Amino acid sequence: MAKIQTPQPVRGTQDIFGEDQERFQQVVETFERIRRLYGFKGVQMPVFEPTAVFARSLGETTDVVSKEMYSFEDRGGDSLTLRPEFTAGICRAFLSNGWQQHMPMKLSTHGPLFRYERPQKGRYRQFHQLDAEIIGASEPAADVELLCFADQLLKELGIDDGVTLQLNTLGDAESRDAWRSALVEHFSDHQAELSDDSKTRLAKNPLRILDSKAPNDRPIVDAAPTIDSYLTAEASEFFAQVTEGLNSCNVAWTRDSSLVRGFDYYRHTAFEFVTDRLGAQGTVLGGGRFDGLMEALGGPHIPAVGWAAGIERLGMLLDAPEMIGPNAIFVPLGEGCEAAAMKLMGELRRSGLSCEMAYKGNMKKRMQKANAAGAAHVVIIGENELANGVVAVKNLTSGDQREIVFDGLVEALAK
RNA sequence: GCGAUUGUAGCUCAGUUGGUUAGAGCGCCGGUUUGUGGUACCGGAGGUCGGGGGUUCAAGACCCCUCAAUCGCCCCA
Fold it and tell me: Is the distance between the Cβ of A281 and the closest atom of strand B smaller than 7 Å?
């Protein structure tokens, strides 16, 4: 018989278990706790959408749309796409359900996203993000609240040390268009000296040349006009209010006038929380204002701000999580003892104490299991104990062992 | 999509200029201890050397192809 080959996981996917799972969980739980403090409602969307939802909103020329989407035809011949980001899907849901009535609307979600990219550290084909959006608010206070949320999240995860908030404004549509034209003009004048990548960017997305890592591009980039010269009075005032708000909330930030974001829908505020501890994947949380997105999806003009953060990336920055074992491991030995143990375990669990049963092997084997599981106590119940209505409770830290009557077990283990 | 490095036991890795039966540590199983863990000692199982093809008397090692991982570019969380 031919040997069956073991299947391999799909490239860029991961099975998250053990310590990685603890890290993942800690990130999500912290996020869920803090988003409630800020009054964000949870929302769940489908993981796939009609392809047009992403193609229209992100910008047809962006890499995500042109080469990184997982798109496929379903049996009815419709083109569907696994979501590569949250924002477009949230906006679609907003329009589909007529959520205008709830504006301004603070929404948060988290879950898997899919991009067909070359895997690297902190970059996967199926990856996971946290996401927070405020829809229907054109006030800078919304930007400030969102950034405070992000800042508090990173602080409570204990990873704010070494992570900096870089902030920029892309201006309103008028400012952005004027700046863009000026940039195109500037870079066209120096086209011959630009790197090949930047020549391509000049045609596709000239703002991104500002991000170029090619050393030869640096002098040209440094000499490029900055947004500040093209900001309208309104856009300038908006940015000033955002930065003042951050200052009064004690959120540390640095201005990065070359910071632009990948997708076409960004306006005004753009920001990234960046670390140098993850190699080339330095952005740990990023977002901005996307006042034009709803219209791109055929809806009315509805301003919005939002950010997303990579769960895996945040998890990698966390201190090693403590593995906490159960309060007790039960070791039943002999006739009728398993049933008695089950009953006691039920009482413990209803009292909020965690416990498991070691039901295999000799005493030594079971003690080893309890120790390896990191249990605080072992509860031994043999035929002698059962007959006397007691259990032997051994504290695995101190090594002390004593007998406890059934009714006193919850109290004995609770401390 | 491009470039570089790597792939040997469940895990982390040795393996000399190609040469007998491929090793170690940890983990796992068993024993010293038939109802008592952590430490120690003894024993055991476990590998078609990522996969396929080639060179050679002989390949874990050399060559080609392929798959995967890691790092960088692109882009992005």
Answer: yes
